[in-house]
Amino acid sequence: MRAITQFTRNFNRQTVVGLLNISSLALGVMVSVVVGLWAMGELSFDDFHAHGERMYRVVNVFDMNGRKLRAASAFEPHGEIAAARIPGIERMCRVVVDNQGLALNGKVAFGIRTLVADNNFFSFFNFPLVEGDPRAIFAGPDNVIVTESAARRWFPGQDPVGQRVVSHGYEMTIAGVMRDFPKNSHIQADFVLPNPERQAQAMALALQRARLAPEDIDLISAHATSTPEGDPKEIEAIRSVFGADCPAYVNATKGYYGHAMGAAGALELAGNLPSFEDGTVHPSINVDELDPACALPRLVVNNPVRAERPVRRILNNAFGMLGINAVTIVGKFEG
What we know:
3 domains
């Protein structure tokens, strides 16, 4: 009681000093609480996974003109190759951000956060499902999972399971509903789609939209990353679409000018356009020893080849990191 009386007496004598002391104490407590809550949130990221202490996210380090750049991403084949070659890796799961918009209820909806994930996504991570069996949710390649909040937003008053959505021209079915991703998860999305072979899918979809058959393509301009993981993966995708005896010529022009990053696809196509006029397929240069996994009947290496028939259509691959792929088909103008 005496302490309160003394405080009141001193406060009345020195009101300004008293207010400053009280404000400083309140500000210090507030800052401590805010910093503490922020630190708790940061330290709790992804710790809800059952095996979170054994999970690792792949980070690539790039040397860009002498500068070290870090990106929490990797080329699509890295997971498979690493799991096959590194004994310590028990399982791997690839997750790709694909915010290109979905068609819902007959309309294209943008602003939707979409993930493309491997089929073991729900057994690898601990994201609970409200509806659906996590072991069989991606049993079909056209199954889609929606979060609870996205289901309420896009299908109000309806059962989302069984609803149809369209992604990149493919019609898919919502097969399950999951709880919203926790705030302390670095993975965030509204829809989760299965991860088919995206490179082959991109080429097949380009042919479908152009109303062409594989045999209508005269020249395939490969992306050709020139990596032990990337090139066999692209050749495998070409074989799956065009057959083991791919009738089209295949080349890569990246060897002439290096990797131009975002401009690579346009430059590679431009390097092949003269084939429309001179009928010559320019080679992939600087190839000392061809990986047997990359062998194709009409792969043009080191020396140009005169095409047996006029080059009228070129399919150009531009395959980026994380499975972000673009395929363009260009036809010669017949005027």
